[in-house]
Design a protein that fits this description.
- By secondary structure, the protein is mostly helical.
- The protein is about 45% helix and about 0% strand.
- It is built from three helices and no strands.
- The chain has helices at about 10-15, 25-35, 50-65.
- The protein binds protoporphyrin IX containing FE.
- The site of protoporphyrin IX containing FE (HEM) has 18 residues, from helix 2 and helix 3.
Length: about 70
């Protein structure tokens, strides 16, 4: 997703955290725990069934997206 629909697009997330060395670990935790307040007042639901390994790989993938056009 390039543009915002519900929550930020993956490219927007990658652009925001491009130079944040702690982003991969923090976002991996947030994928499992859910998130609110980083982008607005809408919550991102938690996904507790995901393994830590899976959420780490997913966070890496989101952060690897090229910047929005
Ligand atoms: C493969 C599925 C998804 C992935 C990998 C994903 C990933 C992310 C990431 C990495 C963030 C950034 C959190 C931060 O900046 O700290 C985020 C935020 C957000 N996501 Fe998702 N997301 C997914 C699905 C969804 C779904 C299904 C929804 C809504 C039903 C959603 C709604 C949101 C919202 C509202 C935010 C902003 C939360 C805030 O302000 O803190 N996401 N998402």
């Amino acid at each position: 997703m390039v543009r915002k629909q519900v929550g930020p697009g993956f490219a927007q997330i990658a652009a925001r955290y491009r130079n944040d060395p702690e982003a991969p670990a923090r976002l991996a935790d947030k994928l499992r725990d859910g998130s609110v307040g980083a982008w607005g007042r809408v919550i991102m639901p938690r996904q507790p069934h995901m393994s830590l390994d899976e959420s780490r790989r997913l966070a890496q993938w989101v952060l690897s997206q090229p910047s929005p056009p």
